Amino acid sequence: MDQLQSMAVFVKAADSGSFSAAAEALGMSSQMAGKHVSSLEERLGVKLLNRTTRRQSLTEIGQQYYERCKRVLAEAQAADAVAENYTEAPRGRLRISAPVTYGTYCLMPLLNRYLRRYPEVKVELSLNDRFVDLVDDDFEVAIRIGKLDDSSLIARPLAPYRLIACAAPSYLAEHGTPLSPDDLTGHHCLGSNAWPATVSGEWRMLGGENLQQLARQSRLQVNDARAQRAAACDGLGIIVGAEIMLADDIREGRLVRLFPQLQKPARPVHLLYASDRRMPPKLRSFIKQVVAELEIDPGSMR
Predict the structure, then answer these.
(1) Residues 6+ apart with CB under 8 A from 274
(2) Is 3.90.1720.10 the CATH classification of the domain at 3-87?
(3) 10: how many CB neighbours lie within 10 A of its CB?
């Protein structure tokens, strides 16, 4: 028999004064209640209750065992309450991995709202452009830009990562405004060495092989998108960067968007996490909020 249940029957029988009263309170037969107490006595090798036809009372060892059982049952109930609370409300540490630019300009505003909504969650956000392994690197969820490799992870598509070309008004005043990618010959194109060569095809998206070659011959290669943006705002050259990063600069006149008429394919974005039916509320609530705010637009991949 289950030892905790037998302890609960024993305590209830001692408190109520009879097996029948204990059985009624616990929803079982009086015979079953008696079997639970007998099972305890047999396992322990001692008598816990003195039984007569009129009454029952605790033996000396039974009294000591009764006190200990009450503590054990109280601790078990408290442990169950911890688990119940954990499964009901988001709480605890949540480790997230995301690319630097996406995490800075897209994920951080969402996290601000998420943390205000769930004050018992603590987030550890790691911004890094390398592809992390969720299991080996101890992350519960990751955002990945680009083509996905086959994996056992669940991948939820998010709104794609759009890239646009911009330059500062001062740069355009000095070097002229290119009206098409073919006009970029002789212009300073800010390059990025943050991504491997197999991933860094941003310039090719705008105008073919010549534009890609210009990007490789850039006088300035920067491994951080925010530094590259600062260089563009200072008039050092033309940047191809994330729309979410450059939108405020365009709106406030620090940068001018180039080639707005071109259709540029966007890079796919996915939210990755392991499949688990017992997903904790902190992760479930975060996934729900990310999908609700950043889900893919059916027409966004055109």
Answers:
(1) 134, 135, 140, 152, 153, 154
(2) no
(3) 25
Q: Where are the domains of the chain?
A: 3-87, 92-161+267-294, 163-258
Tell me what pLDDT residue 1 has: 61
Separation in Å, CA 97 to CA 169, 192, 273: 35, 21, 11
Same CATH fold assignment for domains 3-87 and 163-258: no
Q: Which long-range contacts (CB under 8 A, 24 or more apart) does 60-65 make?
A: 62/14, 65/10
Q: What are phi and psi of 65, to 5 degrees?
A: -65, -40
Q: CA-CA distance, 251 to 100, in Å (whole number)?
A: 22
Helix, coil or strand: residue 201: coil
- Write the class of the CATH domain 163-258: alpha beta
92-161+267-294, what's its fold?
A: D-Maltodextrin-Binding Protein; domain 2 (3.40.190)
pLDDT of 188 over the 80 cut: yes
Q: What is the mean pLDDT of residues 95-114?
A: 93
Please report which residue ranges of 118-203 form alpha helices under DSSP H. 169-175
Largest CA distance in the chain: 108
Instruction: Return the HEC string of 144-157.
Output: EECCCCCCCCEEEE
| Integer CA distances (angstroms), 201 to 62, 157, 195, 229, in order | 78, 21, 9, 18
Return d(Cα 195, Cα 210) in angstroms, integer. 20
Which pTM was predicted? 0.61
Query: Does position 33 have pLDDT exceeding 80, yes or no?
Result: yes
